[in-house]
Amino acid sequence: MAYQAGGQRPVPRPVPGTPEAQAYLQDYAALLEAAPFPSLVVDHRWDVLLTNSAFRSLFGEVEPHPTAAPSDNFLRFVLFHPDAATVLGDHESSWCLPMLAHFAKTVEQHGHDHGLQSIRRDIAQDPIMEAAYRHGLPHWLRNVGERAAEHDGAVRPLLHPDPRWGATDCRIVVETTGTLQEMGCVRLTLVLREPHPVAAAGRRTRRTASHLRVVPAVD
Hints:
By secondary structure, this protein is α+β, with helices and mostly antiparallel strands. The chain has helices at residues 19-34, 53-58, 74-80, 84-87, 91-109, 114-125, 127-144, 178-182, and strands at 39-43, 48-51, 155-159, 167-175, 185-192. Helices cover 40% and strands 14% of the residues.
């Protein structure tokens, strides 16, 4: 498998908008493709509009999934894909709970959004996620503080399939432009840091159907 960026320019996923907005996204895709670090553009539902080659390489070894592919909806990937923990290190506390906290705030702002409601129903059908959403988030936020739920600037562990990176960390940089903001979209870039000496192979485990360790058990 090749881990270098390159190849044809990715085509943006269709979104409502003018031809000018579509043309902007096509050109923004070229900008994204030139970035050396994994990068994606998402809307408020975390539906993925654009990714670059570095992003696709990072998640290139996860198994196909009908509803939680990382290039379709990144929130669903983090919460529901059984391979998420093979790429996202410290999956529960560093990725899952911050994403759930962000989702909870978004639901407060866009409560009638059908896409968000669909995700909320899927959370309710997953006992692990429902326990985290209903009981774990307040407990976790009290312990770590509200800032831990913010994505921009957060440093989180990754397990890169490229052995040159292996077990490493990334700093998440969230940014937008005026045009992206009008579309309700932001760009996230995972700025990779120096790899850890611990071999990634020993840390790549699939999620199992057990209670989240960071969520207190509820009788």
